Amino acid sequence: MAGNLTIGALLAQGTDLLHEAAMSASSPAYPNSFFAASLDAELLLGHALSMGRAQLKTHPELVPETHSAKLYGEYLKRRAAGEPIAYILGYRDFWTLRLNVTPAVLVPRPETELLVERAMALGPQRSARAADLGTGSGAIALALASERPLWNVTATDISEPALAVARANARTLGLTRVEFVDGKWFEPLAGRRFNLVVSNPPYVADHDLAMQNPALKHEPRVALTPGPDGMACLREIIVSAPQYLERRGWLLLEHGADQAAAVSRELVDRGFAHVRSHRDLAGHLRMTEAQLEP
């Protein structure tokens, strides 16, 4: 970024740069729209200047200090190369929470909020035991703990760096009723039973075209794909779940848009009832819930 430019000029330059990057066939860093590029530019400049978007818009004539403009330029280069904006900013808003995120965890997606919504609808208002398998940043577990303070929430993850991020988020948010344990899926929960189990496991097959998105190369691969069989982790959780659910307990799973039928069949075969799939805001069948038969 050239020096002595106003906020308005910096935003215009940044928006053009990011829009051109998104238009490039070699760098589809984010949704191909001028609005997306403009929003990213505002977020990045606001981060560099420690200013909110409203301040940027109301003071476009201000000339930032040179070091701040330079920092903004570095952020733009990273974003144009496909790095998720959450990693550049260091946080992501999810549900009603602001979560710190690092490359050790998957960036929480808006569609995953559907799991939180359905868990709240199915679980009791008062005390309950809930488990979040493969918690990553702690997004689902912490959202549930914030909405249902009487619930005892346990979250597992096989990644210690991910658990460190989740625990830090819990401390920052003051959500003390969440227990984080190290281990794969149900493995660290032997002998325990829950009223509700939720999970957003890896479900994209490694040969799927979606894995070629340059933005995904920055996120932990183990959190995105289970390998050649996109159903592998979903199936493993479904098979084990009856041992860890109370009678009439619920299992809620996020999955790919084309996996609802396969997930439903697995659940029915394992003895679950009331199997229902729900669409996300984009209209895709994004998660499936089922109740363990008594």
Condensed summary:
Helix content is 38%, strand content 19%.
Q: How would you sum up this structure, described in words?
A:
The protein is α/β, with parallel strands linked by helices and about 290 residues long. It folds into 2 domains: about 80 residues, no CATH class; about 200 residues, 3-Layer(aba) Sandwich (Rossmann fold). The chain is about 40% helix and about 20% strand. It is built from 10 helices and 9 strands. A 7-stranded mixed β-sheet has the order 5-4-3-6-7-9-8, with helices on both faces. The radius of gyration is 21 Å and the shape is elongated. The model has no long low-confidence stretch (mean pLDDT about 95).
Output the radius of gyration.
Answer: 21 Å
From the spread of the alpha carbons, the general shape counts as elongated
Task: Catalogue the unreliable spans.
Answer: none
Secondary structural class? alpha/beta
User: Distance N terminus to C terminus?
Assistant: 64 Å
How much helicity do the residues have? 25-40%
Order of helices and strands: HHHHHEEHEHEHEEHEHEE
Largest sheet: 7 strands, mixed
Number of domains: 2
Q: Could you name the CATH homologous superfamily of the largest domain?
A: Vaccinia Virus protein VP39
- Number-wise, the strands total 9
CATH topology of the largest domain: Rossmann fold
